[in-house]
Write a structure and sequence with these properties.
Blueprint (H helix, E strand, L loop, with lengths): L2 E3 L8 E3 L3 E5 L2 E7 L3 H11 L5 E7 H22 L7 E7 L8 H13 L6 E7 L1 H13 L5 E6 L2 H7 L4 E6 L2 E8 L4 E5 L8 H18 L1 H9 L1 H10 L17 H23 L14 H11 L5 H18 L5 H13 L9 H12 L4 H8 L11 E2 L2 E3 L2 E2 L5 E2 L2 H8 L13 H5 L1 E3 L6 H13 L1 E7 L5 H12 L3 E6 L4 E7 L10 E2 L4 H10 L9 E5 L10 H9 L4 E3 L8 E4 L7 E7 L4 H10 L5 E8 L6 H13 L5 E4 L2 E4 L9 E3 L4 H14 L2 E3 L14 H6 L12
Parallel strand pairs: 4-11, 5-6, 5-7, 7-8, 8-11, 16-29, 17-28, 20-21, 24-25
Antiparallel strand pairs: 1-2, 3-4, 9-10, 12-15, 13-14, 17-19, 18-19, 21-23, 22-23, 25-27, 26-27
Helix pairs in contact: 1-2, 3-4, 5-6, 5-9, 6-7, 6-9, 6-11, 8-9, 10-11, 10-14, 11-12, 11-15, 17-18, 17-22, 18-19, 19-21, 21-22
Length: 723
């Protein structure tokens, strides 16, 4: 319970926060809350063994923000708790920030300083900072006078959810990270989430790598939440302290929704690590699960640090180690894709040649990530047993193959981390080998996936979408539709099935601008969709990355403006960002003329939203030859599958009645016909029988006739059923 206490002669009342405690190793020593400074000293003085000297160690960046506050609080709380006793000493030591401080030389310098200050065995050391400060200062506490009391006060998201929990302390050496250290459990871990208000966006992403990692190994439900709520979690961390009073969040009653979400995300991740540490403190088995992504990630970090952060390296490591699991036959391709997409949603790199890493270190430095060098670094990894490298292998998202890391061959790791694979001709096959049939299932069609998402979101009822493409484009569409609050999403069958509960076209103004990256299909579809938002004032901004801001939307915006929608260009005329104003009229409807010679996506955008216009829409395509007619036909066919029949009333003119989509119970996204051409062509060249399911003669895609129209005339035997 929060309390405001006053003692005679004390300078001010104390502000003692309401907190959430998490048990680890049998004691509730992890404390989570907001504005904890007074609470920290009160808990230290009242509930931990008394010390003659308290040593607070931090870095220069944090010292400017917090040291004076901690000094003042130390004196105020002592005056309340022990008004008649002389206060113990509070010493402060400030270090340069950054990974370079995490060294044996810095550790020795701290110890020499403490000895010079006459610190004795009843000293308590407090680490105020991120992972570097926590690891280094913890190792000092573990060895000074053969071990003194230690308290962690993590100030970064990464430190809160990872390095501060579990008692691992260490320094780096030229041979690698964390190779010299000790296990030394802190007496308390105080997670003051109010300090995250100053967290840079990149540090948020750095910490979220560990949050996503933890969910990936432990909880499919938590992974689903993180996957579906990237923007909400980002807002909770980076904006969770804004808009309230200086003490907002001190009590449960004063917490905003964002602060409550922030506490939930961090506490959920911390509980998992606390549970694992409790059952395997010295990392002899289960605790190794927490190193998912770290075997490869640490090797990358050893080459690219300090320009590339720990979480960024771990994110790449998670994707590569998930690919190891896939090639071992344990994790599905969908699982790898979902993990990749989730990490990207939090602003993290997912490949060794990721554009983000190129920007941070340059291509020449990235070229140093040679497979042999990375394997040599992995040979020193603490999970390695003899010459056998060990990796945490996922069975599915939220579950690992074993409750400890799994032995993996160097050959498989090298294959995954290599930039390319040399494919050699196989020896002449035997008759039995040549007769072996192959079944290839390409990923879902991007065009159909994006249309299905929008249709199901606008429709009434529940729809299970199967074989959905897991890509940046579909993630952008999912995120935008969720931000507009018109539907809910959940996953089934380990991510193979997306369950959409449509909102019947009842969309709401999103709380922030919709960032669409370079997702052109989503940007054009949502430019019309945003006009359906039910609001009498306000506006919605659609924006994207630099490439997206160069892609044209002018003809679509012109048509919508002529129909009565109010849309402004925020920067360059004809492209995103767009500001869609809301006046309660929605999409007026009636006759709409659209120039369709640039992109068929303009046509599909208006068609898909037309049933929700105020009046029936007659869409007339003008301005010359219509481009990509098959994609318009695809849209019309899919609208019919969701209960809306478009009438082709004249050449390039379509009539769309008003109404609402009715979601089918299930919708199977066709596999991508363009991708299917490759295995079919290989089969033709090698004389192999190849079956590609889910692309039949009734397909919505033009490329679906490749085998019939191209391979059959070349002499191949082709059978194509309707489905």
């Amino acid at each position: 319970m929060a309390a405001e206490t006053t003692t005679a002669g004390a300078s001010r009342p104390l502000e003692l926060a309401e907190v959430e405690r998490i048990s680890i190793l049998g004691t509730e020593s992890i404390v989570c809350g907001f504005h904890l400074t007074d609470y920290i000293w009160n808990d230290v003085f009242c509930n931990l063994t008394a010390a003659s000297t308290y040593v607070l160690i931090t870095d220069t960046n944090l010292a400017r923000l917090y040291v004076d506050k901690y000094r003042e609080s130390f004196a105020a709380v002592w005056a309340h708790v022990n008004p008649d006793r002389k206060a113990p000493r509070l010493l402060v030591h400030v270090l340069p920030p950054g990974e370079t401080s995490k060294s044996r030389a810095t550790k020795s310098a701290i110890e020499d300083w403490m000895l010079g200050e006459k610190c004795t065995r009843d000293t308590m050391v407090l680490a105020l900072g991120g992972g570097v400060i926590g690891d280094l200062v913890g190792y000092v506490a573990a060895t000074f006078m053969r071990g003194v009391a230690f308290v962690q006060i993590p100030t970064s998201l990464l430190a809160m959810v990872d390095s501060s929990i579990g008692g691992k302390t260490a320094v780096d050496t030229p041979a690698g990270k964390n190779l010299i250290g000790a296990f030394w459990q802190p007496k308390r871990i105080f997670m003051d989430m109010a300090v995250l208000s100053t967290l840079p966006a990149r540090e948020f992403s750095n910490g979220m790598a560990e949050v996503v990692k933890t969910a990936a190994i432990w909880s499919s439900d938590e992974f689903d939440v993180l996957e579906a709520s990237a923007e909400e979690v980002r807002a909770a961390v980076l904006e969770g302290q804004s808009g309230g009073s200086g003490a907002s969040g001190l009590t449960v009653a004063s917490r905003s929704a964002a602060q409550t979400q922030l506490l939930r995300v961090i506490a959920a991740s911390a509980r998992v690590k606390a549970y694992v540490v409790t059952h395997d403190e010295r990392e002899s088995g289960m605790r190794g699960l927490l190193n998912f992504g770290h075997t490869i990630g640490h090797a990358i970090e050893a080459v690219l640090s300090p320009q590339v952060l720990h979480g960024e390296c771990v994110a790449v490591g998670c994707v590569l180690e998930a690919e190891v699991a896939r090639r071992m036959g344990h994790l599905s391709e969908v699982g790898v894709a979902r993990l990749t997409r989730c990490l990207r949603a939090y602003g993290l790199p997912t490949a060794m040649d990721d554009a983000m890493l190129v920007r941070l270190v340059g291509e020449k430095r990235l070229a140093e990530l040679r497979p042999k060098r990375l394997l040599d670094i992995m040979a020193l990894d603490k999970k390695t047993v003899g010459a056998q490298k060990r990796i945490v292998v996922l069975k599915r998202l939220g579950t690992t193959l074993e409750m400890n890391p799994t032995s993996v061959s160097d050959a498989l790791i090298e294959e995954v981390i290599s930039a390319g694979v040399l494919v050699k001709p196989v020896p002449e096959q035997t008759t039995e080998q040549a007769a072996a049939a192959v079944v290839v299932v390409p990923p879902g069609s991007k065009s159909i996936s994006n249309r299905a998402l929008l249709l199901a979101a606008l429709g009434n009822g529940e729809c299970r979408i199967r074989n959905l493409l897991h890509s940046d484009d579909t993630q952008v569409m999912l995120g935008a539709l969720q931000a507009m609050g018109g539907c809910t999403f959940s996953w089934e069958d380990d991510g193979d099935t997306l369950v959409v509960v449509g909102g019947g076209g009842q969309l709401h103004m999103p709380p922030h601008e919709l960032f669409l990256g370079n997702a052109g299909t989503a940007a054009r579809f949502l430019a019309t969709t945003a006009n359906l938002i039910d609001a009498k004032d306000g506006s919605t901004v659609l924006t994207g990355n630099a490439r997206m801001k160069q892609r044209p939307t002018g003809p679509l915006v012109d048509a919508l403006r002529a129909n009565g929608c109010t849309i402004d260009y925020c920067e360059r005329t004809g492209s995103l960002p767009l500001r869609v104003h809301h006046d309660g009229r929605g999409l007026p409807g009636g006759r709409i003329q659209l120039a369709a010679s640039v992109s068929s996506q303009y046509v599909s955008s208006i068609l898909l939203c037309a049933p929700y216009a105020r009046e029936p829409v007659v869409l007339e395509l003008v301005g010359g030859k219509v481009i990509s007619q098959p994609y318009i036909d695809m849209t019309i066919a899919m609208m019919a599958q969701f209960g809306c029949r478009v009438e082709h009333v004249a050449e390039n003119t379509y009539a769309v009645p008003t109404g609402a989509y009715v979601n089918p119970a299930e919708y199977m996204v066709e596999s991508d016909a363009s991708s299917a051409t490759y295995p079919l062509a290989f089969a033709a060249i090698t004389g192999t029988e190849c079956t590609v399911p889910n692309i039949g003669s009734a397909s919505l895609q033009g490329d679906a006739r490749f085998a019939v129209d191209v391979l059959r005339p070349m002499g191949c035997t082709v059978e194509q059923t309707a489905t």
